[in-house]
């Protein structure tokens, strides 16, 4: 059992990945892996380069350069890898404009290597990148709207109009007046209007006044009086209207019998 554990340990040590000659490079700055300083980017024309050498007996199945912002959001990029002697050289060249817009607006990015094969794995943060405030201001990033509770919508309904639209009122009034005058003229041509038989009787004028009273009642109803107030006024006018109207109709009936109508 001890011999098996020793063999496993030795195989792990022998095949473990070793990273050398790692560099982070921009157009104006170059840093080695694991340095305390950050690579500063200050222009959209910057080009980020990551290069490193992997010492391994076999080529890893997975090699990625991972960028992570300060909120833990990450994105992986696959570098080109070529064999050189007993090592593998990986290089990644990434223009700033090719970075996700979220990363372009992030103040700091952490650079990690993800290397793995069936036997071994390597995952380490090897450096960091800082975007200057000027560069962040040039970013076109807009936060996406998240699925979450929204502020309650308070809809304010418009008040009901107190009067009809002026244009409708003018057209209706014009048509009403024209209809009235047309009716008067047609009665005149047909002889239906005979002022010679008009009797100046108080009941006749009272009936006409009551008809005008109905018009005034409906006018105030249009201005805002309640339906109950309107019904009450109509009820008051109904009795006298029937009385004086019957007298007027009796008078017109007498004229018709006498052949004067």
TrEMBL record:
Classification via PANTHER family: DOLICHYL-DIPHOSPHOOLIGOSACCHARIDE--PROTEIN GLYCOSYLTRANSFERASE SUBUNIT 2, RIBOPHORIN II
Domain (Ribophorin II C-terminal): residue spans on this chain: 157-252
Lineage: Eukaryota, Fungi, Dikarya, Ascomycota, Saccharomycotina
Pfam assignment, any one: Ribophorin_II_C
InterPro entries for this protein: Ribophorin_II_C (IPR056790), Swp1 (IPR008814)
GO BP field: protein N-linked glycosylation
Chief location category: endoplasmic reticulum
Membrane topology of the entry: Multi-pass membrane protein
Keyword Transmembrane helix: yes
Listed GO CC annotations: oligosaccharyltransferase complex
Transmembrane spans: 168-193, 205-224, 230-252
Protein name: Ribophorin II C-terminal domain-containing protein
Native source species: Wickerhamomyces pijperi
Keyword set, alphabetical order: Endoplasmic reticulum, Membrane, Signal, Transmembrane, Transmembrane helix
Signal peptide: 1-16
């Amino acid at each position: 059992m001890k011999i098996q554990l020793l063999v496993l340990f030795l195989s792990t040590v022998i095949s473990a990945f070793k990273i050398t000659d790692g560099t982070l490079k921009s157009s104006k700055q170059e840093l080695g892996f694991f340095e305390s300083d950050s690579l500063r980017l200050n222009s959209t024309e910057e080009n980020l380069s990551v290069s490193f050498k992997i010492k391994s007996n076999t080529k890893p199945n997975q090699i990625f350069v991972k960028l992570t912002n300060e909120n833990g959001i990450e994105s992986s990029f696959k570098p080109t890898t070529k064999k050189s002697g007993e090592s593998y050289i990986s290089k990644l060249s990434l223009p700033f404009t090719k970075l996700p817009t979220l990363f372009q607006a992030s103040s700091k990015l952490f650079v990690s290597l993800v290397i793995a094969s069936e036997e071994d794995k390597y995952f380490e943060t090897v450096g960091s990148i800082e975007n200057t405030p000027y560069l962040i201001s040039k970013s076109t990033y807009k936060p996406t709207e998240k699925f979450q509770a929204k502020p309650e919508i308070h809809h304010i309904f418009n008040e009901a109009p107190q009067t009809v639209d002026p244009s409708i009122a003018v057209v209706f009034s014009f048509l009403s007046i024209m209809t009235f005058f047309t009716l008067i003229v047609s009665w005149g041509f047909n002889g239906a209007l005979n002022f010679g038989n008009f009797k100046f009787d108080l009941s006749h004028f009272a009936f006409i006044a009551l008809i005008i009273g109905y018009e005034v009642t409906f006018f105030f109803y249009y201005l805002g009086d309640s339906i109950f107030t309107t019904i009450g006024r109509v009820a008051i006018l109904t009795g006298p209207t029937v009385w004086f109207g019957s007298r007027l109709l009796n008078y017109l009936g007498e004229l018709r019998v006498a052949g004067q109508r």
